[in-house]
Write a structure and sequence with these properties.
290 residues, alpha/beta, UDP N-Acetylglucosamine Acyltransferase, domain 1, Udp N-acetylglucosamine O-acyltransferase, Domain 2, 2 domains, 13-stranded mixed beta sheet, nine-stranded parallel beta sheet, 5 helices, 17% helix, elongated
Length: 290
């Protein structure tokens, strides 16, 4: 690995290996691709493996066993791979596994898992904003956004394209479905169904219509999901019975995604709570064009 002097404010790339700022500390177990850049005062210790074009910013700490793919960017002060905040953890060599093209902004923390047979997993193309936290054994899918201060407890599951707004809380073992969105400051200890909007504490307030449009869902698919939302969360029926009945009357992938998610819930499902601005308009028709 080549250590080179900074060129201006940036780290100069060396032709013989990764470019490491003179003040950075890289342990002997680390494996860095030749196209990796490591900034001032970063510390990389343990069995850390970084793929091509990863950039490690100032004061970043990568520790334990962190396996990261290509194009990941770690901004100032991020701490990735430290021990889980779990009193049962006894120092086992557990891991954080990271895909490609993720952005970890200032002071993001991601903890490794608490047992060897299960990893903490971050997929591809995720954006973790400043001071967000991913707890041990969590599984974050692809194209997920965690806004500033969002906190994911241990063993949480965040499915693809979910949006967790600022200062939101996701309790340990809870799940957030694909294309769901949590309004700022929302908190859930139950599962948030796919395509839905969480607000307050364990409540949902309609469909993420704008997110569905942007993801390419057709008008017919959105209409079907509105009807399904009405039957599952606003009819007052037993949820399990409503799911079974709906399976006979709704077809298509979006409906199956929602029904399967609800059927697999183990912590309960966030329930609908009306508001003066949302339920009738958002369920009766699409929101105004963004």
């Amino acid at each position: 690995m080549k250590t080179s002097e900074p060129a201006g404010s940036d780290v100069a790339r060396g032709a013989e290996g990764p470019c490491i700022h003179p003040t950075a500390i890289v342990g002997p177990e680390a494996e860095l691709d030749s196209a990796v850049e490591v900034g001032p005062y970063a510390v990389i210790q343990g069995r850390v493996r970084l793929g091509p074009n990863c950039r490690v910013g100032p004061y970043v700490h990568l520790t334990g066993c962190v396996l990261a793919g290509a194009g990941n960017v770690f901004h100032t002060g991020a701490v990735i791979g430290d021990a889980p905040q779990d009193l049962k953890y006894k120092g086992q060599p557990t891991r954080v596994v990271i895909g490609d093209s993720n952005c970890f902004r200032e002071h993001v923390t991601v903890h490794r898992s608490n047992r060897e047979e299960e990893d903490t997993v971050i997929g591809d193309h995720n954006f973790l904003m400043a001071h967000s936290h991913v707890g041990h054994n969590a599984r974050v899918g692809h194209h997920v956004i965690l806004a500033n201060g969002a906190l994911l407890g241990g063993h949480t599951v965040i499915q693809d394209r979910a949006f967790i707004s600022g200062n939101c809380l996701v309790h340990q073992f809870a799940r957030v479905g694909t294309l769901a969105i949590m309004q700022g400051g929302a908190a859930i200890s139950q599962d948030l169904p796919p395509f839905c909007i969480a607000r307050g504490h364990n409540h949902i307030g309609g469909l993420n219509v704008i997110g569905l449009r942007r993801a390419g869902f057709s008008a017919a698919q959105r209409s079907q999901l509105r009807l399904l939302y009405q039957e599952l969360f606003r009819s007052g029926r037993n949820l399990r019975a409503a799911v079974e009945d709906a399976r006979h009357r709704y077809s298509g992938e979006p409906a199956s995604i929602l029904l399967d998610f609800v059927a697999q819930a183990r912590r309960g499902i966030c329930r609908h709570k009306g508001s003066r601005w949302d339920p009738q308009e958002r369920l009766a028709g699409d929101a105004p064009a963004e």
